[in-house]
Amino acid sequence: MLIEKIINNNIVSAVDSKGREVVVMGRGLGFGMKPGRQIQENKIEKVFRIKSQTLAEQFKDLLADMPLEHVKVSSDIITYAKENLKLKLNQSIYVTLTDHINFAIERFKEKMMFTNPLLNEIKTFYKEEYLIGEYAVALIERRIGITLPVDEAGFIALHFLNAEYGTDIRDAVKFPDQMQAIVDIVERDLGILLDESSLHYERFMTHIKFLIQRIYRKELLSSEDRELSLMMQRKYPREYQCSVKVAEYIMQATGSRLSEEEIMYLSVHIRRVSTIDL
Fold it and tell me: Which of 67, 63, 46, 75 is nearest to 5 (CA)?
């Protein structure tokens, strides 16, 4: 690989054998080097291949003045999430998470700690993402030697939610509250308390997660099968009416209207999650 630009002593922008731009990290990799020279292969620790030119430029700007250890720990957290939890992540995670972790470490050193008001909801509704957050906090303690508060595990989880759903972080922070609001509607409307340990509950929450994901990606099902909808209303009237109330909430909260097909599927899931509790 040929060096295109020296970002700092440890990070360079380069061109690989196929002519693609990459960001290469390694201790001392850029020290004393110049554009056009060959990278010393034995110093390479990580190669970032970011497809979006805009993201790539943001990433390079971000790394210019950042300690190498902060970059490495962020990269290892992302790799852990991809390999162990099989998450499909938008490449924006390299910019947003790296920036967040660097800022969190600097805030900690300055004794500036933030409380995460969504922590309980994140733990409840986004367990996998929260586990990544816990892993991240533990890895930062092991590598950097500082113990971030548990609130940071929640903040880190939100960045992974954002990257999973391909949304803006300002939307991602709404997800836990929206999940809780939907659960509250179902419990209140049907007069039940859902069993969080049941398989039906897990399936219901998975359906709601993907529903919210489709809302923000604008990928909602569009079928308006009135005949099937009428059959569902006759077969499961309570659950269907509950689904309508959830749809009304979603319209109010997101501006998105659920189709008859979406309401029908929601009714089926509400039926399954509530039957075990009746």
Answer: 63
Concatenate the DSSP letters of all residues of 152-196 into one string.
HHHHHHHHHHHHHHT--HHHHTTHHHHHHHHHHHHHHHHT----T
State the Rg of the chain over Cα: 23
- Give pTM, 2 decimals: 0.77
Q: What single-letter DSSP state applies at residue 198?
A: S
Do the two domains 68-172 and 175-275 of this chain adopt the same fold? yes
Question: What is the b/e burial string over 27-62, where b = at least 16 CB atoms within 10 angstroms of the residue's CB?
Answer: eebbeebeeeeebeeebeeeebebeeeebbebbbeb
CA separation for the pair 7, 68 (Å, rounded): 12
For the domain spanning 68-172, the CATH number is 1.10.1790.10
> SS3 breakdown of the chain: % helix, strand, coil, rounded to 5?
60, 5, 30
CATH number of 2-50: 2.30.24.10
Q: Which fold has domain 175-275?
A: PTS-regulatory domain, PRD (1.10.1790)
Tokens for 114?
């933030």
Q: How far apart are CA 257 and CA 28, in angstroms?
A: 54
- Distance in angstroms (rounded) separating the CA atoms of residues 86 and 122: 19
* Cα 253 → chain centroid: 20
Q: What are 58's two structure tokens?
A: 């943001």
Residue type, 73: V
Domain segments of the chain as ranges: 2-50, 68-172, 175-275
- Residues constituting the chain: 278
Mean pLDDT in consecutive groups of 10 residues from the start of the chain, 278 residues: 94 91 94 92 93 92 94 96 84 93 93 87 91 97 96 94 79 89 96 88 87 85 75 90 96 93 90 71
